[in-house]
């Protein structure tokens, strides 16, 4: 147990002005703090007021980051108690702006930056981390940060934010979490030319140099932190799919952009079925964007239909893709990336999204393109003409990249759209009804999946676990939620949601033989007992 100034400098142990008189005497804190002792509740109100006094969301992000770096219990108490207000500040959409300016707002080290210069020393670098027994790592190489592109080392805001959500939403103890940025360079000329860019100034490594670096990193994680679950985050399309397939059985790992996005989108479709009409097998999806997120959603949709008895070919025929060049069809096979090939149908090429909607006649239009305002009035109106209740999912993050706004979706569909977005939108009044747009954000999925996999010691994070997570999430959207147009439960229920998903994921792991920890008599109660609660403990 550290004492004095060292204790105040440890964010996991520091209680600030909440240290009691006895603790101040016993731990060498007398004189290092203002004399008045405050309760956690009083500190919470002071911190909440401080956040609300700031008019700029980036300034709020900076305040919250500084709070996290000095007092984690207070930080997480604030996020848990005011989750709807705080999550958009510590993650999307604010984290996008924070990443763009990460070099300018950098204050204190949090996590590990591992660069190409550390080749041959990665295990040594991991051992420098002050907390033993890391169980959860979120890692990025910064190539595809949200919809913002290659931000290199500035992408560190994403692993930090994701791990904060793990703790706030599913109770993973922050002691066991580690954010990592793998700095392999950047292809962004503004960053390379920037005077104060914090990363290594070289073009992004490709080919063998990149692969050997990743191989050493994975080996080092397995050696130094053998119980760790690894989440791949915001890797570019050229690497994301192949790294997931190469390493997912080497160590427990998943890619949230592929699998987490898939589960949350599928859950939204499943929850919306009472509004859309007809079973899942009758839905036809047109995706705008054929990268990690889109093909991940399609693959999980196919898995769901196959579990209901449909053939893989028939299930894939329900999914259509429109990329930057047009409709994905077999006449384009020579130019398509490998992950698009299963969805290249025998159909005439269509050059515009509006025409594709008219010809394909989808029941659901899902945007994962990072291209803002691509769901035009013509397109949304056409979806409404073709369907009594069209599903319009504008999932690109941050808000500035959304394919359309909630207000546009409801207005252009005459209030009939079943809308979801990746980042939050304010309620919309239309036709005498108040709509509460559902946020199809991965926050509903990955915290529970990670917690479930960790508590049962899963050797692998399987696709079946994500399907179980999607079905669980869909079942938690109530009739009251659907009545106001929301296909996801309120974010205020996120800990309940994460617990239910963690339980379902662990159940699937035990059923499939992937768990390594003996099954407790009451699995849900066991997981609940492991969830970190942000409260102070007595030191003396």
Number of helices: 24
Strand percentage: 5-15%
Integer-rounded radius of gyration: 23 Å
Q: Kindly state the percentage of residues in helix.
A: 40-55%
The coarse silhouette is globular
Please report the first level of CATH classification, the CATH class of the largest domain: Alpha Beta
| Unreliable residue runs | none
What is the total tally of β strands? Answer: 14
Find the structural class using helix and strand composition.
alpha/beta
In the residues, how many domains can be counted? 4
CATH topology (fold) name of the largest domain: Rossmann fold
- Which CATH architecture of the largest domain? 3-Layer(aba) Sandwich
User: What is the fourth-level CATH superfamily of the largest domain?
Assistant: NAD(P)-binding Rossmann-like Domain
Question: What does the average pLDDT come to?
Answer: 96
Structural notes for this entry:
The chain is of the alpha/beta class and 540 residues long. The protein folds into four domains: 1-38, no CATH class; 109-251, Malic enzyme, N-terminal domain (Rossmann fold, 3-Layer(aba) Sandwich); 259-443, 3-Layer(aba) Sandwich (Rossmann fold), CATH 3.40.50.720; 446-530, Rossmann fold, CATH 3.40.50.10380. 45% of the residues lie in helices and 10% in strands. The protein is built from 24 helices and 14 strands. It has helices spanning 4-8, 21-26, 40-53, 57-70, 72-81, 83-90, 94-100, 102-105, 122-127, 157-170, 189-193, 207-224, 237-247, 256-276, 292-307, 312-316, 353-360, 377-386, 406-412, 446-455, 463-475, 479-483, 494-511, 523-530; strands spanning 112-115, 136-140, 177-183, 229-232, 253-255, 285-288, 319-323, 326-327, 364-367, 391-394, 418-421, 428-430, 433-435, 438-439. Strands 8-7-6-9-10-11-14 form a seven-stranded mixed β-sheet, sandwiched between helices. A five-stranded parallel β-sheet has the order 1-3-2-4-5, sandwiched between helices. A two-stranded antiparallel ribbon has the order 12-13. A hairpin with a 2-residue loop joins strand 12 and strand 13 (433-435). Helix 4 crosses helix 7 (94-100) and helix 20 (446-455) packs across helix 23 (494-511). The longest helix is centred in the middle third of the chain and has 21 residues, at 256-276. The radius of gyration is 23 Å and the shape is globular. The N and C termini lie close together (11 Å). The model has no long low-confidence stretch (mean pLDDT 96).
